[in-house]
Amino acid sequence: MASAPSAAADPQSERPGPVTQFADWLANWGQLVLDTLVAFGDFSLFFVRTLVWLFTRFPRWETLWPNFHQVGVSSLPVIALTGTFIGMVLAVQSYFQFRQLGLETRLGGVINLTLVRELGPVLAATMLAGRVGSAMAAELGTMRVTEQIDALAAMGANPIRYLVVPRFLACLVLIPTLTIMADFMGVAGGHFYSVIVLQIDSHHYWFNSAQFVGNYDLFVGIFKSLFFGAAISMVACYQGFHCSAGAEGVGRAATASFVYAFVSILVLDLFLGIALDAIYFTYNPEGSQLL
Amino acid sequence: MIDQLYEQQTPILEVRDLLVQFGAQRVLRGINLSIPAGQTLVLLGESGCGKTVLLKTMIGLIPPTSGKIIFDQQDINELNERDLSQLRLRFGYVFQNAALFDSMTIAQNVAFPLAQHTRLPAAQIRELVLSRLAEVGLPHNVIYKKPAELSGGMRKRVGLARALIMNPELILYDEPTTGLDPIMSDVINQLILRTRRKSPVTSIVVTHSMDTARRVPDRIVMLYPSMRLDPDEPQIVFDGSPLELEQSPDRRVRQFVNGEAGQRLMEMITESN
Fold first, then answer.
1. Of B61, B86, B101, the CB nearest to A156
2. Which residues are CB-contacts of A141 (< 8 A; sequence separation ≥ 6)?
3. What 3-state class would DSSP assign to B15?
4. Which residues of A touch B101 (CB under 8 A)?
5. Model-level ipTM above the cut of 0.90
6. The pTM is what?
């Protein structure tokens, strides 16, 4: 009868001491920090190379149009739909709390301010990261795996100029328009549910909206979206360009693209929100008359 | 014999003390090669010995860890991105799986270098594309098809037509016959020879096919996997003519030429355990 191998008999399987364990733990963390720093440096270099190609040799129009169509025209319906529903959801969620305080007519201000400053740009960017960013990462990843990116370079066409710059430009230029669409449809959806379904007085709804939402709020939302668009395209292209071999590698690049883009959107949203508020209060020390 | 044939010529491509390392793995080390203009060189070796890495390093797609690649007296790794892109117009590269752009038609694929780098009118580009496709034996009706609609052999020939469209001085073939039936493999071998006969082009063919190695080259260089060698052993285990390859007394060369596994299977099983 075969006996089980004894762990105690084998000196190789002895547990390392606490000092060795701590050294291993420290080494693993050190490696993780180093790898993260290298990846961040590599990503920054990728971004700088994209900017250099953008400002030194503008891409050809025939490489721009398909990307503009994909990012702009094809994304419009889904972003409009998302915006409409978010406007209505905001009305549903806020109505009962505001009614308890007798402030139903303030709903217009709350819904529209939230939409224009936060939810419009963030949702448009999230949808773009999911719909376009992942597709970009998968497409470029497949091109990397099947040596199409190498083929471009071998034929004297710089892959950054040919593949990355048009995608970067499409996201950067079109995300403000998609944000405006998300804002508009959200405002329309919020109005529909508040005024038509919940029977809130239309005049007071819009009066409060006009009191709460200013031009600066609209500017903040659209300005932030530019950074979101840049982050989505750069993360997607970087993941696609650095895709590992095989179908699994392409799938992982598409997933990683969405996850990193979404995290970047939220982190950028926080810091841009703080910075833009600081700028606003620097020039308007007394703040808004209503807040 | 090879030295005598080409000794008067300035090399078009030189590889000097090349080291390519991925992490801790040394794929290529101590590689020195001098390739005269007009020569057809076959880089032979078993899978994983670094042939394709060497080919990609020659065109700057993989940066060397150390060492130099000199093309026409320019170190390609010292060029900036734009100059390197310009220099690559003098190269043609036939990829292992053709690497055709799957979003484009065959005509757009073959015309791609012309569309990117010339201002030729569309009618002239179309004529050039059709003539290049005819040279590799492809009918006119393939031009509107997408790469996915073609067989492996047809895709390889489209890849060759695309590599030839800019009349390159140096063509790099990465395993041009891998995955093809014997007849189509011979067609590709004949196309490589015809290309050489039609123009004074320099060709470097990476292959592990002995058939290609016997039929195509003026010179054969055989690489051996770095990890199977002692640190002081050179990675190039053979450099000579096809005839000299057949007569080589080197055990590793003989093993490859005769296609003998020897103790390799037992070694792999022992390593995996």
1. B86
2. A239, A240, A243, A249, A250, A253, A254
3. strand
4. 143, 148, 151
5. no
6. 0.84
